[in-house]
Design a protein that fits this description.
Elements lengths: L5 E4 L1 H4 L3 H7 L2 E7 L2 E7 L2 E6 L2 E9 L3 H8 L2 E6 L5 H7 L9 H5 L3 E3 L5 E3 L4 E12 L8 H8 L5 E14 L1
Antiparallel strand pairs: 1-10, 2-3, 2-6, 4-5, 5-10, 6-9, 7-8, 9-10
Bound molecules: flavin mononucleotide.
């Protein structure tokens, strides 16, 4: 069901500045069902057009708890917050759902989205996303070896998910 607090809006208008909205403002990637879900902050990703659909690309390192949910669920959400809620994103980007209930620690109210995923009443905008393609990054594919050394000398590589944006929902 669509939360009464949100209304469906035009996807293109809602994502007019993906570099700023993702890279500077950050987003929350949430996967699972209301009874069992996890979310994490992401500032790497993209929004664009692929296979004639509006899509997001998200990149999740395989050691994240969220990764398990991303693998096991067909859909996920990406949520955006007003600047005064950035501490929520800082928290969800520095704590693991393996150790703490991030929703209750941050005062986030989860609800079920139309496609059965999870979003939060405190967000200003969320996208429902349906996984279409996933690919594990590999060292041999890096053309820029400096980026490989810089970002992957210690931590596991990201897995990329390309997902159709099924709908954009903005808080009233
Ligand atoms: C600003 C910011 C951006 C982040 N972007 C990403 C990202 O794009 N991909 C990723 O795998 N981790 C990213 N992280 C790290 C995860 O959010 C962090 O490891 C989180 O605690 C994982 O939580 P989980 O174990 O509950 O999944 C980011 C963290 C911050 C603070």
């Amino acid at each position: 069901m669509i939360s009464a607090m949100f209304k469906q809006v035009d996807i293109q208008a809602a994502m007019s500045n993906p570099i700023g909205q993702i890279g500077s403002d950050w987003m929350l990637v949430t996967s699972g069902s209301v009874s069992k879900f996890n979310m994490m902050t992401a500032s790497w990703g993209a929004a664009g057009f692929m296979w004639n659909k509006p899509v997001v690309f998200v990149f999740i390192r395989t050691n994240r708890y969220t990764f398990e949910f991303m693998e096991n669920n067909p859909s996920f959400t990406v949520s955006f917050f007003n600047a005064d809620k950035k501490k929520i994103l800082s928290f969800c980007g520095s704590h693991s759902g393996r150790d703490v209930d991030k929703a209750s620690a941050c005062g986030l109210t989860a609800f079920q989205t139309p496609c059965g995923s999870v979003a939060f009443e405190e967000s200003k905008l969320y996208f429902e996303c349906r996984k279409m393609y996933a690919q594990q990054m590999q060292a041999s594919s890096f053309i820029d070896k400096e980026a490989l050394d810089k970002w992957y000398s210690k931590d596991p590589m990201h897995k990329m998910y390309v997902a159709e944006i099924l709908g954009a929902y903005s808080a009233h």
